[in-house]
Design goal:
Length: 418
């Protein structure tokens, strides 16, 4: 097997990280008119999801502390559809992994799957709300606003998505994804979100924006009134900050780890440029011929959604898969592509030999390759030397190493991370 030489590069992307995340959250909550309307003594449900949001424990603790300073009684609920295996215990464990528990937050964590029907959209979609949230005096969500991995629109992942997929729990998530097959997810988010806001239960949400380095860049306390245009505006802003793989084409992308804490699809589909819609389906992104994933993050409890987007995987990833959890996620999302299992082999050497032979180059040393840790961390990566002419034309790219070969150990394995 002939392999290209690799060089390490760095993308010098703007760092928009907040100096004091907790202070920024408290200031936003203090300045929001909707928070001043909440009466002392009220019980407020604070919804938190399953994504690997930077500083999520700091953010939620600041929200809890703010409400307590107003003599309001907050409690935390998981808003994560079928994640955590679709069980109350699993979802509580997901939050605990992120440092969110009754002990660390100073507020109860109420994890259950019971829902209450609160309305129906004009299209006939029954709208459900977490029962504990329904019984509270109000609900707010802590949600990251970003692009969605399954569609392109003006309103994608954020507060509206979590009002539907999150607050609807597993039952609602299944129902909304079923409707989305015909209506599209954006339309479902808008319709369900409107029905949720119309109940008066939804106070608002803390919209979290992250920069290209996965740093907390901005937080915005959005109230129910005017939420749609504000969320659209914030999505457009964060899309303009997005980091990508900085080449036009790749024969092979090597990804060290995939998982639910990285993306709802295990990998960000708008980085790897493939999804349930097909391969190389997002305009303006690199065309990537093959993908090799090496391991599964330990934070998803074995949920390996996204393996179906790979062309080959390492045995260590395959043996880490909890197929029951993965299939629950897949069928809840009304899409089985992400859970289909690709070929898998015992060593990196064998995986690379098998997959490079399918890239259409008689001399595999001529293949163009990028090697990343995961689709969240794109500031630094390894790329094949034959991409340097293209990369040097990009003023944001810095080459930080001399060319080096792939280095395998005696068992044919590569280092654990790029």
């Amino acid at each position: 097997m002939h392999l290209p030489q690799l060089v390490r590069i760095r993308q010098n992307l703007p760092d928009r990280g907040l100096a004091d995340v907790s202070r920024a959250v408290l200031d936003e909550m203090e300045s929001a008119a909707w928070t001043r309307a909440v009466r002392p003594g009220s019980r407020i449900a604070v919804g938190v999801g399953s994504r690997g949001i930077a500083n999520i424990d700091v953010i939620v603790k600041a929200v809890v502390d703010f409400w307590k300073s107003r003599q309001v009684n907050p409690f935390i609920i998981p808003v994560m559809g079928s994640h955590g295996g679709g069980t109350p215990e699993g979802q509580r464990a997901v939050l605990a992994h992120y440092g969110i528990s009754e002990e660390t937050m100073g507020a109860p964590v109420v994890s259950a799957l019971d829902v209450v029907k609160i309305g129906r959209t004009p299209e006939g979609i029954d709208v459900s709300l977490d029962k504990a949230a329904y019984e509270a005096d109000g609900v707010m969500l802590c949600s990251r606003v970003k692009w969605h991995t399954g569609f392109e629109g003006k309103l994608e992942s954020g507060v509206h998505k979590m009002m539907a997929i999150g607050l609807g729990k597993w039952e609602g998530a299944k129902r909304y994804h079923t409707w989305a097959v015909r209506l599209g997810l954006e339309e479902v988010f808008r319709k369900v979100g409107k029905a949720m806001l119309d109940t008066g239960k939804m106070l608002g949400g803390l919209a979290i924006l992250e920069d290209a380095h996965h740093h907390t860049a901005e937080v915005h306390a959005l109230g129910a009134e005017g939420m749609v245009p504000r969320e659209e505006e914030l999505l457009a802003r964060v899309k303009s900050w997005k980091a990508d793989i900085p080449v036009k084409e790749l024969d092979l992308l090597i990804v060290d780890e995939i998982g639910k804490n990285i993306s709802g699809s295990g990998m960000d589909t708008k980085v790897i440029n493939r999804s349930a819609l097909g391969r190389n389906c997002w305009p303006g992104l690199p065309s990537i011929r093959r993908i090799y994933a090496r391991s599964l993050t330990p934070h998803g409890g074995g949920n390996a959604i996204g393996i179906g987007l790979c062309d080959v995987i390492h045995d260590r990833l395959y043996h880490g898969v909890d197929f029951a959890k993965t299939w629950i996620n897949s069928f809840t999302a009304s899409s089985t592509i992400g859970s289909m299992c690709p070929p898998h082999f015992a060593t990196d050497r064998e995986c690379l030999a098998k997959i490079l032979s399918t890239c259409g180059r008689p001399d595999t040393a001529q293949c163009t390759v990028a090697w990343i840790r995961n689709t969240m961390e794109l500031s630094a990566m390894l790329v094949s030397e034959n991409l340097l002419d293209e990369l040097r034309a990009n003023p944001q790219i810095e080459v930080v190493s001399e060319p080096q070969p792939f280095v395998f150990d005696a068992e044919g394995q590569l280092p654990q991370a790029a």
